[in-house]
């Protein structure tokens, strides 16, 4: 080892060091897979050569609109080709992509526009009213709206704004991409439901996006030319980085605007879909689909599921249908999936029914790009791996965010002790596999969407008859969980369930609105703190 102390002349240079970025995957695909189908969406079918040109034109057009390196470009798009193109076109002009959840309410979108200082926003015609209302409510300068029409699916252009295809037509196909000089440069900004009402802006870097996309190729056992169906919204952790992954393996992205059993079965049968990710609600949809909506197919479809463990009954039915399900776990702060329930064939292949489902319900072990996933107690000490002792899931590695935008205190808190604190309570089995026992106290996960109970409570507290409000998760067959509100009324006041739900719906997105309201005195500790664990138990019994 002695001679290694002298590293004279062994420096980084253009020949031996290039900052990591998922953009490199699409540049390579242009050379290696130019005529292979890159994106399919009905009649819209683009090869890698065409995909690369459209991305280049988008980067050029955004630059002409005044987007400079480091500026934020937002999108309010369902899973359509423009959403995939933005994943490359925005960073290719040096911009930071901010994909906004299409199900959010006006106030939250206005906050995101203001907080992220979006310069431009690409908006699907269906969601123009949301974008317009959010712009009206903003404190700062509103972003330039570019309308993305989808006439083939009933959303023709309104003519009120520059249209996306016209924008691309005006872009330069010879534009030189602005590649990162430093792989720590930001590539994306994603807003997450925190445990407070305002969402936090999670910042990703090029390095993490590249490593996450590459690492999942290993975890998902992907070989060349997979056909990937976009069920995970591209606004959720950038679609779990899967769109960035596809050019690396010459894959085809099949866009799915409306997630229905019919559309999923058609995509598998007609496009030969081999891979998709989605919440357990999607698996339930497929299992419960009537014969009239099903199509036969003769290959195994690999499925990553997350958000909650799939029910044993669902697993028992879906695997014989031709789906191989792997549970993964992650958060916005770790670019989507960070752990996988890696299957140990020697130990588990013979398991059936509930025993098999019990293993599949584990969140598992770190994916290859994550340095360490473990469960620690309050003193940052490893808990006993006995499958019983509880602690908090902690994550360390290159697949962890840079931090929260404009929120150094929250960032420092999240990274205390050298790990990212997930807020999720879990046990660890003797083989190191992690298993969640209790979601972070205040978050409700409904159909894969995170809902802050604090935000919902804040709205309910504005009702003139409400003294106290507590919102917890109520188990739901379709959505996994839905918000259930327990309300203590002011003395002498009265209120009806339907009226309270309607009141909340005026301020909140539909999925955040309580589906059940119970009027009662709330259980409290001696210090007056509401005992949510008791309410969760009640919600389960309703």
From TrEMBL:
Recall the taxonomic lineage recorded for the source organism.
Bacteria, Pseudomonadati, Pseudomonadota, Alphaproteobacteria, Rhodobacterales
Provide the AMP-dependent synthetase/ligase domain boundaries.
28-405
What EC class is this?
Answer: ligase
| Family the UniProt entry places it in | Belongs to the ATP-dependent AMP-binding enzyme family.
Any coiled-coil ranges, and where? none
Query: What Gene Ontology terms for biological process does this UniProt record contain?
Result: fatty acid metabolic process
PROSITE patterns in the cross-refs: AMP_BINDING
**Keywords (A to Z) from UniProt:** Fatty acid metabolism, Ligase, Lipid metabolism, Magnesium, Metal-binding
User: Mind telling me which PANTHER family this protein's record contains?
Assistant: ACYL-ACTIVATING ENZYME, BUTANOATE--COA LIGASE AAE1-RELATED
GO molecular function, one example? metal ion binding
Query: What protein am I looking at?
Result: 3-methylmercaptopropionyl-CoA ligase
Q: In the Enzyme Commission scheme, what number(s) does this protein have?
A: 6.2.1.44
AMP-binding enzyme C-terminal domain ranges (all copies): 455-529
């Amino acid at each position: 080892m002695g001679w290694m102390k002298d590293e004279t002349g062994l420096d980084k240079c253009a020949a031996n060091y290039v900052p990591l970025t998922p953009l490199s995957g699409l540049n390579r695909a242009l050379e290696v897979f130019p005529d292979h189908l890159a994106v399919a969406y009905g009649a819209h079918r683009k090869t890698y050569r065409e995909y690369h040109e459209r991305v280049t034109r988008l980067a050029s057009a955004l630059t002409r609109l005044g987007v400079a390196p480091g500026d934020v470009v937002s999108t309010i798009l369902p899973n359509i080709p423009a959403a995939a193109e933005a994943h490359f076109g925005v960073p290719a002009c040096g911009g930071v992509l901010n994909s906004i959840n299409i199900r959010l309410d006006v106030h939250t979108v206005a906050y995101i526009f203001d907080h992220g200082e979006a310069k431009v926003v690409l908006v699907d015609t269906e969601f123009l009213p949301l974008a317009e209302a959010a712009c009206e409510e903003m404190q700062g300068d509103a972003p330039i709206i570019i309308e993305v029409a989808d006439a083939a699916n009933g959303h023709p252009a309104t003519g009120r704004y520059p249209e996306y295809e016209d924008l691309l037509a005006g872009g330069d196909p010879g534009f030189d991409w602005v590649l990162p000089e430093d792989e720590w440069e930001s590539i994306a900004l994603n807003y997450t439901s925190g445990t407070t009402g305002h969402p936090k802006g999670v910042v990703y870097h090029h390095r993490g996006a590249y490593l996450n996309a590459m690492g999942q190729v290993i975890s998902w056992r992907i070989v060349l030319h997979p056909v990937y169906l976009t069920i995970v919204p591209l606004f959720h952790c950038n679609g779990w980085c899967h769109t960035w992954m596809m050019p690396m393996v010459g894959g085809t992205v099949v866009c799915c605007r409306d997630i229905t059993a019919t559309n999923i079965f058609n995509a598998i049968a007609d496009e030969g879909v081999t891979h998709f990710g989605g919440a357990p609600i999607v698996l339930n949809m497929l299992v419960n689909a009537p014969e009239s909506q099903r199509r036969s197919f003769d290959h195994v479809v690999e499925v990553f599921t997350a958000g909650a463990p799939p029910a044993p009954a669902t697993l028992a039915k879906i695997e014989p249908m031709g789906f191989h399900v792997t549970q993964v776990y992650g958060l916005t702060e770790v670019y989507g999936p960070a752990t996988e329930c890696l299957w140990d064939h020697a130990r588990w292949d013979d398991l059936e029914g509930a025993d098999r489902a019990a293993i599949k319900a584990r969140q598992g072990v770190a994916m290859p790009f994550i340095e360490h996933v473990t469960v620690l107690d309050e003193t940052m000490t490893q808990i006993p791996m006995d499958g019983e002792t509880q602690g908090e899931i902690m994550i360390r590695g290159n697949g962890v965010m840079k931090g929260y935008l404009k929120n150094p205190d929250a960032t420092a808190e999240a990274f205390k002790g050298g790990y990212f604190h997930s807020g999720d309570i879990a046990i660890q089995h003797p083989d190191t596999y992690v298993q969640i026992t209790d979601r972070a106290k205040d978050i409700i996960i409904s159909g894969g969407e995170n809902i802050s109970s604090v935000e919902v409570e804040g709205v309910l507290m504005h009702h003139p008859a409400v003294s106290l409000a507590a919102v917890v998760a109520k188990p739901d067959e379709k959505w996994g969980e839905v918000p259930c509100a327990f309300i203590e009324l002011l003395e002498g006041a009265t209120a009806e369930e339907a009226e309270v739900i309607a009141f909340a719906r005026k301020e909140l997105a539909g999925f955040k609105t309580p589906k059940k309201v119970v009027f009662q005195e709330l259980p409290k500790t001696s210090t007056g703190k509401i005992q949510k664990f008791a309410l969760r138990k009640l919600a389960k019994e309703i």
